[in-house]
């Protein structure tokens, strides 16, 4: 019999999930209160802003969000005039998503707030701790993805 027992509060995958959900919920509430959008919609806006134009499939791959969540967010944002769909010359079965002028304004309003919230949490840690933490997260990603 092993002397090490599984305790969820000390189990690193659980701790990562719990902390990520805690942080995400706080941020999501802020986005909803201030801008009337959810976290999935913000992530779609952020990826589109970062890439200029992008397919829903690419957003799914880079964000680890499922297809239904990304599709619903894209439909809602298109309906609100935040996104527009463009033809995809590389794959006629899909469309590229791009920000409208309204989408660019919304991104410009939310991005500084997102950075402010991040800073508020991580200001309690040294720059070296934050750098080490982000590096460790990237290394975990690589290990899990087989790299």
TrEMBL record:
Alphabetic keyword roster: DNA-binding, Transcription, Transcription regulation
Native source organism of the sequence: Sphingobium indicum (strain DSM 16413 / CCM 7287 / MTCC 6362 / UT26 / NBRC 101211 / UT26S)
InterPro entries registered for this protein in UniProt: HTH_MarR-typ, Metal_resp_HTH_trans_reg, WH-like_DNA-bd_sf, WH_DNA-bd_sf
Name used for this protein in its record: MarR-family transcriptional regulator
The HTH marR-type domain, residue ranges: 1-142
Molecular function, one GO term: DNA binding
One protein family per Pfam: MarR_2
């Amino acid at each position: 019999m092993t002397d090490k027992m599984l305790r969820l509060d000390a189990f690193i995958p659980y701790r990562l999930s719990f902390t990520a959900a805690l942080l995400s919920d706080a941020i999501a509430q802020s986005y909803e209160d201030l801008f009337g959008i959810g976290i999935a919609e913000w992530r779609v806006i952020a990826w589109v802003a970062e890439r200029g134009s992008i397919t829903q499939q690419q957003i799914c791959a880079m964000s680890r969000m499922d297809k239904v969540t990304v599709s619903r967010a894209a439909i809602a944002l298109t309906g609100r005039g935040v996104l527009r769909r463009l033809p995809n010359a590389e794959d006629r079965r899909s469309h590229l998503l791009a920000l409208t002028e309204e989408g660019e304004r919304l991104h410009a309003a939310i991005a500084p707030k997102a950075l402010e919230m991040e800073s508020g949490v991580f200001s309690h840690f040294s720059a070296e701790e934050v750098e080490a933490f982000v590096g460790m997260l990237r290394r975990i990603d690589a290990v899990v993805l087989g790299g």
